[in-house]
Design a protein that fits this description.
Layout (H helix, E strand, L loop, with lengths): L4 H6 L5 E3 L8 H9 L3 E5 L5 H14 L5 E4 L6 H11 L3 E4 L5 H9 L3 E6 L2 H9 L5 E4 L5 E2 L5 H11 L4 E4 L5 H10 L3 E4 L1 H4 L8 H9 L3 E4 L7 E4 L2 H8 L2 H19 L3 H15 L3 H6 L2 H10 L24 H17 L5
Parallel strand pairs: 1-2, 1-9, 2-3, 3-4, 4-5, 5-6, 6-8, 8-9
Antiparallel strand pairs: 7-11, 10-11
Helix pairs in contact: 2-3, 3-4, 6-7, 8-16, 12-15
């Protein structure tokens, strides 16, 4: 076992985190990660509050180990979701965006561990000053929304800038990566694509095969107006070539579909859009395009139609060729990290 500030903080056995991937990180995957000794994170952005409550109950029925819930800090009902996390005794709250100081304080007062995700040193410094317990920093190699700075450059910047545990994400998939992150000063690693491609992931097998066979990723802004790393596909090529008007029409249709699935009102979606616009300084067309993300991901990750959806993916997908269980993956990562560290020669 490798004990770090992350394992001590969260109560998990191994310094390995499964990220909160929309439509992917549900009770089945999260409980498998928790039972294997890692920190599983439920993705709540694509769930209603009632669905989130049910998902928390289901994870609890499958494991007694600690786990977390990932929240959208800019969601109009973020406060109610924080109340749910506190009421149900969830161990960790993670955030896709920097949360407000008020949310951090409410969670910490209730004994919940707060771990925001950041993509820049200044963001890490801000949330650390607000009292965050740890920070997850993702480099440009990671899947989904990403920045342009590589993990090997961003990680040491953040480690040197804050005095709370730092979790490294972006480009990790094996024990050598965990060993390297620990040498940089990180307290553990977080992996998304690697956990998506496990036997415990609920992603349809046909889509997993596409991941294993298609190793070319690109960063596009055509999905929701922000940088988004995905597998290259015919649909993504089509989106890249589409004009602004065509992209906005697609976004309007997807907004209506997401409204129906999420149970949100148009007023609620507008409030969330206003929060996104303010927090990320987006144009109104970018806010509207943001409706593309959950629906295009759902088409592939839930409906099994990669031809109709997009597949978020880190560059590390090129190095993955098997679908182990979470138990096999985590135990292998930890064992290989121990070997890598013990095998280092300084002369």
């Amino acid at each position: 076992m490798i004990s770090t500030a992350l394992t001590e903080l969260t109560g998990v056995r191994h310094p390995v985190v499964q990220t909160g991937m929309g439509w992917v990180a549900g009770p089945r995957l999260v409980s498998a990660v928790a039972n294997a000794g890692g920190l599983g994170i439920l993705a709540s952005a694509t769930m209603t509050r009632d669905q989130l409550a049910d998902a928390i109950d289901e994870v609890r029925s499958r494991t007694s180990a600690p786990f977390g819930v990932n929240l959208r800090a800019d969601a109009s009902d973020a406060g109610e979701r924080v109340d749910l996390i506190i009421r149900t005794g969830v161990r960790v709250a993670s955030f896709a965006l920097a949360p407000s100081r008020e949310l951090v304080e409410r969670l910490k007062d209730a004994g919940v561990v707060v771990i925001p995700s950041v993509g820049a040193r200044r963001h890490a410094e801000k949330v650390a000053a607000w009292g965050a317990d740890a920070v997850l920093v993702q480099g440009g190699e990671g899947g989904g929304h990403t920045g342009a700075v590589a993990t090997t450059v961003l990680l040491p910047q953040v480690v040197d800038a804050v005095d709370i545990p730092v979790i490294a994400a972006g480009g990790f998939y094996d024990g050598r990566g965990l060993a390297a992150a620990l040498m940089y000063g990180a307290a553990g690693v977080a992996m998304g694509t690697r956990f998506l491609l496990t036997a415990d992931s609920s992603v349809p097998d046909a889509v997993k095969r596409v991941y294993l066979e298609g190793h070319d990723t690109l960063v596009t802004r055509r999905i929701d107006g922000l940088p988004h790393r995905v597998l290259r596909s015919e649909l993504v090529t089509e989106l890249e070539a589409a004009g602004r008007v065509r992209g906005l029409l697609r976004a309007v249709r997807n907004a209506a579909r997401f409204k129906k699935i999420s149970g949100m009102s148009w007023a609620g979606m507008v409030r969330d859009g206003l929060a996104m616009k303010h927090g990320k300084e987006l144009s109104w067309s970018q806010v509207l395009m943001a409706a593309n993300t959950p629906m295009l991901l759902k088409a592939a990750m839930v409906d099994g139609r990669p031809d109709l959806g997009v597949m978020a993916s880190g560059q590390v997908v090129a190095l993955i060729d098997a679908l182990p269980s979470c138990e096999e993956l985590i135990s292998g990562v930890v064992a290989d990290a121990e070997k890598a560290v013990s095998g280092v020669r300084l002369s």
